[in-house]
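Sample 3 of the quickstart, ligand 6-chloroguanine:
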Amino acid sequence: MRIDIITVQPGLLEGPFSHSILKRAQTKELLEVHTHNLRDYSNLKHKQVDDYQFGGGAGMVMMLEPIVNAIETLQAKVQYDEIIYLTPDGETLNQKMANQLSLKGNLLMLCGHYKGIDERIRTHFVTKEISIGDYVLSGGELAAAVLVDAIGRLIPGVLNDETSALLDSFQDNLLAPPVYTRPEEFRGWKVPDVLMSGDHKKIDNWRHDQALERTKARRPDLL
Ligand code: 6GU
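Result:
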C-alpha cells in the first residue's frame, strides 16, 4: 500500500511513521508513506495556500488551486482508491473503517487547516471524509497519523503472531481482556489461578467472559 499525505505542516508528520510497527511495515515494503508540502504546489508569489472566505467572516480557507495542483500531480503517477479528507465533520473513524481501508491499494490523504478547504475540492475530488472523534484539533495532521497507524498495522504481513490484530480490542466489538506477566505474585497481588492452570480451553473461556464483562461495564454501546 502507498499512502500520500498533502499537508501545510509536513513537520508534524516526520516522527510517527519511523517507529515500531509502521517502521517495520515500510522496511518490509508493505507500506510506503510520502508527505507533500502543499506550499510547493502554490503558484502565488509568496507560496500562499489560504485566503479570506467569500461572504466575509473570520478565519482563512485553504484555496482550491494549490490543492488541485497537488492532487493532479500525484494522480499522474499514482492511481488512488480513495481520496480522504481529514475533517472534524467527517465520518467518525472506527475499527471497521480501518479494516476496510487496510485492504485498499493506494490512499491519498488531505489534511485540513484553518476554517477548512474550499468546498469544491470536497465536491469534485474527495471520496471519503474522516474524523477521529468529537473534539477539534488544530489541523488534520495528527488525525492522518492516527489513521495511517490504524490502517498500517492491519496490512496483511505487517503484524506477526505476537502482535496479531485478531485479539485487539474492537476487533470483534469486544474490549480486550486483562493481561498479566511475571512475576506471578507481587506484594500479595496474585495473577488469576486460571491463567496458571495450563488448561487452554478454560483460559479461552475465562478471557472471553472477562472481555464480555469489561465491555458491558465500560462500553455497553458496543454490544
Ligand atoms: Cl480529522 N481534523 C481536525 N482538525 N480536528 C479533528 C479531526 C480532524 N478529527 C477530530 N478532530
